[in-house]
Write a structure and sequence with these properties.
Length: 57
């Protein structure tokens, strides 16, 4: 779900632009936080449908 939201409303992976595949999600006061694995190997941190962090490799 988070990967679909990120693809529609926010930027995807900063390296390749894909949204990634959600590994886990949980609620927070700021919205749903998800961790997604991109096909290029990076981990993405998605908050409320927007990528807010990522691993470098």
């Amino acid at each position: 779900m988070i990967d679909e939201i990120a693809a529609e409303t926010g930027p995807g992976c900063p390296a390749c632009g894909r949204a990634g595949v959600t590994a886990s999600t949980h609620g927070s006061a700021e919205g749903t936080v998800g961790y997604a694995r991109c096909g290029c190997g990076r981990w993405l941190v998605v908050l409320a449908g927007r990528v807010i962090g990522f691993t470098m490799g």
